[in-house]
Amino acid sequence: MNFCAFAARIAFVAAFSLGALAIAAPRASAAEPISLLIDCSKIPTQNIAITRETIPVKPGAMTLYYPEWIPGEHAAVGPIFNVAALVIKANGQTIPWRREATNMFAFDLTVPAGATSMEVDFTYLGATTGRYSSARLGSSNMYVITWNQNLFYPSTGTIQDTIIKPTMILPGSNWQFATAVTGAKRAGNTVTWDDTSLEHLIDSPLDAGINFHRWDIWSDGAAHAYLNVIGDQPQDVDVSSDVVGHYGKLVREMIAMYGARHWRNYNFLLTVSDVIPGEGIEHHESSDDGGRADYLTNPVALERGADLLSHEFNHSWDGKYRMPAGLYPSNLNTAYDDYLLWVYEGMTQYYGDVMSFRDGLREQKYFPDHIAAIYAHYDNQPGRLWRSLGDTATSGPFLYYAPFGYGLERRGVDFYAEGELLWLKVDSIIRDKTNDKMSLDDFSRAFFGGQNTGPDVVTYTRADVVAGLNKLVPYDWDGFFTKWVDDIAVHPPDGFSDEGYKLVYTDQPSHDVPRNNFVYSLGLAVGQDGTIGDVAFGSPAFKADLGINQKIVAVNGREFSPDLLYQAVKNAKGTTQPITLLVERTLDYRTVTIDYHGGPRYPHLVRQDGMPDRLMEVPKPRT
After folding, report:
1. What stretch of H or E contains 362?
2. How far apart are CA 349 and CA 132, in angstroms?
3. What is the pLDDT of residues 488-545, one digit of tens each?
């Protein structure tokens, strides 16, 4: 997810103990492949995809599995609720099946005598609601195929060795597509690809559409990186050369930092649509990204989401090539161990944001505001008094789907953004211990770089990360991670004080914290319409008995607006007069008063006199 000249620096690759090696690329197999046909012709009109699989079998009892634990989504999110019209046949006869009561993704059946193959037919129902990839299928002009949603497989231990022969029927001759699956051959509306492993297939989503534009943004010999944009409207893919240039810069910056790549060709797959939900899911040789229709044409929208592609691209190294051992089971129906997501996602969040400054989509001068906003958020988060950062990672499978309300108390998937602070602190320690000769970039180059390869997988453990850091800079890294990841940390990691900055609060908004943010004054998050989204426990708003899903109707006797609330906070500073709110909840109205007189408060990083400015070395481009 979201996330660089180094020739003179030392390479440490040989010093690392590499974990178990597995090949994710397509491979030859003596077994007959499973034929997979996905008919997408009805997606534009009915938002359904129809699958037929022909699976080699032997007579007797067997179990079919629908993928449950989806790589990159870190949870049991296989959208089995969208599977319908499942019919299994062999030798022309329908085979009865029974879903296992204790494993609803497993289907037991008996293959009749004499059968050497069976046909599996089902319809995938396009979602209209949902989270992440389960909510994405298609519109009238585009669709996204994540192959795991459109197949069953016959064992739980062979995703590397189960071979698939994929075929797809497109809706029409004017539909174009992009995917990391190799060997595409098109005949009319039918496309076939090379036989590939199940592992590689599900790691290679496909985007297709009418309004399609592809740019070759980087090349090195036979290797290329492509930006593929699919939109609902032609104007949405009319992207300026400057914007495209920034993504070419992103690839150069990432290659410069890591020193090697672990993909043959890379495809950024980006949908820009107000119909299909947004997305950001990493894959080894591609990424499944989605933004609003104006994502690439509206400078404000682009800057706000500038880390989307950089985050997912970084995962090709951190998360795909080097993968936590607990996230690499041999099948798609074994639960993940998400504990190391503070490395997988936390460091990628760091580099996704850093690269958005290095590639120029964000201005470097705003980097301190960016860090101040993240630090202040977590420093004002009461939930950190009971839940550790490591627990947010271990709890990822349910926190991804937790409600948004009371997030400051519950804590969410904080291993992303607080993980960014953690790795900024690691960067600070490395710079300090090496007198600015090295940084986190050097560790990343050694641990995730190495030599150019195809899409291999090298697993790692926490001990590997600690050992790798100690090869670079001897330090109590295990104790460091115990303190900031495993133990309760009242404050988040501070990676800027030793870099020449300090955090202060003023009455002036920043580039990253707007005027209508009241978390650092009232302890209140409120929407444009007055609906309260969060209240920090122990804050002035909490003490006034405000809570989520209440709606502020009026401020000091006047109809609510964020500007009016801001003015009330400002006017109450230095006085004894409370701020009076009229609040509605479930058709009941009440008046509450907030006894707060500190005025507006917004976080900023300011330079400390007499200290070198190390922080601004972080977002500097490397090419």
Report:
1. none
2. 18
3. 999 999 999 999 999 999 999 999 999 999 999 999 999 999 999 999 999 999 999 9
Query: Beta partners for 60?
Result: 111
Q: Closest by alpha carbon to 447, among 429, 459, 435, 438?
A: 459
Query: For residue 2, which of 316, 213, 403, 360 has the smallest C-alpha distance?
Result: 316
Is the pTM higher than 0.85? The answer reads yes
Return the structure tokens found at 527: 């929407």
Please say whether the beta carbons of 316 and 263 come within 8 A: yes
Quick: pLDDT tens for 86-108.
999 999 999 999 999 999 999 99
* Bridge partner list, 459: 323
Residue 260 and residue 322 in contact, taking contact as beta carbons nearer than 8 Å: no
Mean pLDDT in residue range 265-276: 96
**468-493 per-residue burial string, b: 16 or more CB within 10 A, e: under 16:** bbebbbebebeebbeebbeeebeebb
Report pLDDT digits (tens) over 595-615: 999 999 999 999 999 999 999
CA–CA dist 228, 214 (Å, integer): 4
Length, in residues, of the chain: 623
Q: CA of 518: how far to CAs of 409, 497, 541, in Å? A: 16, 25, 10
CB under 8 Å to 476, separation ≥6 — which residues? none
Kindly state the DSSP code that residue 82 receives in the 8-state scheme: G
Say how far apart CA 172 and CA 245 lie, in whole Å: 31
Query: Rounded distance, CA 17 to CA 7, Å?
Result: 23
Give dist(CA 50, CA 137) in Å, integer: 12
pLDDT computed for residue 404 by the predictor:
87
- Show the domains of the chain with their CATH numbers: 364-505+608-617 (no CATH), 524-599 (2.30.42.10)
Residue 134 pLDDT grade (very low, low, confident, very high; cuts 50, 70, 90): low
Q: What is the reported pLDDT for 155?
A: 81
For the chain, what is the radius of gyration of the CA atoms? Answer: 26
| Least confident window among 262-266, 397-401, 426-430 | 397-401
